[in-house]
Design brief:
By secondary structure, the protein is mainly alpha-helical. The protein has 22 helices and 4 strands. α2 runs parallel beside α5 and α5 crosses α8.
Length: about 450
């Protein structure tokens, strides 16, 4: 790990200086970051990874790839709103340039495994005694190690791009719940974190900060939820806060649009419970429109009418973004965060909870999630127990040369998490279905 840090420092540019983006060549570094994300294999694989609804059911709804594209676009819009409205504000000079905002948005889900959060739960269950698994932590691992642009530095991105994509800076061992039996999401949902193995990478990312800012940035809170310990990181960078807002808006609005288009939403419940709660909060109407506008358009059979209402919802959130301040931090990139005002935050929370209840908790969706978990578990057990002989040759060589059980487990976890839904399904059938498979199939 020390060699990784020392070699990486030789090529890294200072990116936390005051007004760093006015310097000649700074924007080019972030254009390179964006290009490397777009052209890396992990990003392309997102086209066949589940966002909310399973791959292959329809060509309309979002995959992880289209979701990531939308997060990048919404993040750019948030940045534009803040740039236009805040020229006289002290945080204006520290807004990320457009290429960096897009790069961070495209990066944010790079580490998510096949079968959505169900696959994440399954891998965390399998890895719980060996460092755990979490999608955001895997994103940092791809950026730092697994990406193909450098044998030492993964995607070899700038320090600030890696900071922006590091949503949760606390370590797995600090946040993890004591192990539970079973594979129920309530028991095995991983904490939002980074792996202990990447602690030195995190320290390198934070190295330009003062010691006080570094110590404060990695603080976390602990609370009891239904008798269960839940630990959560407390802080994020300015760039991350923009990306996270864009992610929440894309989930709350665009996944809601998918559910509407596929007629998964209970219209009666929407009109009876959800819509009144939203418009009671947003008394002046959302984006200047009234309840009848959304009543008529959201459940219209016209794609154009529905999209009109969805666009108004997105604009309602994006145009409302403000910047808050955490005065305990001295570094501007940590002192300032983008946020939604209370009204808009409440409306977005209602939308997200409605999508979760109406779509994700549906038995049909849960059945697909359960099946994905079983596929991940059986693949992991088969690949690990067969001493690397079922893995591609380069991966099998790394597996055989690894001296520790934890390291071997991580190699298998890396391999499976990098698979698409369809790749994992095909390999599962090749290994476990007697009438499927050929020596000519590629592994």
């Amino acid at each position: 790990m020390e060699s990784w840090i020392e070699r990486r420092r030789q090529t890294d540019e200072p990116t936390y200086q005051a007004k760093p983006f006015n310097a000649q060549g700074a924007e080019a570094e972030f254009l390179r970051d964006r290009a490397r994300v777009i052209h890396c294999a992990a990003f392309r694989r997102l086209q066949s990874k589940t966002q909310v609804l399973g791959i292959g059911e329809s060509d309309f709804y979002r995959t992880r790839l289209t979701h990531s594209l939308e997060v990048a676009q919404i993040g750019s819009s948030i940045r534009h709103v803040l740039h236009s409205a805040g020229a006289a504000q002290p945080w204006h000079a520290y807004l990320p340039p457009p290429a960096l905002v897009e790069a961070v948005g495209l990066l944010h889900d790079l580490g998510h495994p096949p079968f959505g959060h169900g696959g994440e739960v399954a891998l965390n269950f399998l890895m719980k005694d060996h460092g755990g698994f979490e999608g955001n932590a895997q994103t940092l691992r791809i950026m730092a190690r697994l990406g193909e642009y450098s044998s030492e530095h993964g995607l070899d991105l700038t320090r600030r791009a890696m900071l922006g994509a590091m949503k949760y800076p606390c370590l797995y061992s600090e946040l993890a719940v004591p192990e539970h039996d079973g594979i129920r999401p309530a028991d095995c949902k991983p904490p939002k974190c980074i792996y202990d193995e990447e602690a030195a990478v995190r320290d390198w990312i934070l190295q330009p900060l003062s010691n006080a800012d570094q110590a404060r940035f990695v603080q976390f809170s602990v609370r009891e939820v239904r008798g269960r310990r839940v630990a959560t990181s407390l802080h994020k960078s300015f760039d991350t806060s923009i990306m996270e807002l864009a992610d929440d808006i894309a989930y709350g609005v665009h996944d809601f649009e998918d559910a509407l288009a596929l007629q998964l939403i209970d219209e009666k419940r929407w009109h009876g419970e959800v819509s009144p709660a939203i418009f009671e909060c947003a008394r002046d109407g959302i984006a200047g429109q009234g309840t009848e506008f959304y009543r008529a358009k959201l459940f219209s059979h016209s794609d154009k009418e529905r999209k009109h209402a969805i666009s108004k919802l997105v604009d309602y959130f994006v145009s409302s973004v403000i910047v808050t301040e955490k005065p305990d931090f001295s570094a501007p990139l940590f002192r300032y965060n983008a946020a939604l005002p209370a009204e808009q935050a409440h409306v977005l929370r209602i939308l997200k909870e409605f999508v979760f209840d109406q779509v994700i908790r549906r038995p049909q969706v849960q059945a697909m999630e359960f099946k994905g978990q079983r596929i991940v578990r059986r693949l992991f057990e088969a690949l690990y127990e067969n001493l690397g002989r079922l893995l591609p040759r380069d991966t099998a060589k790394d597996f055989e040369e690894c001296a520790s059980e934890r390291g071997k487990m991580r190699i298998v976890s890396d391999y499976i998490s990098g698979m698409t839904d369809s790749d994992a399904t095909r390999l599962y059938h090749r290994l476990f279905s007697p009438d499927v498979g050929s020596i000519y199939d590629r592994i």
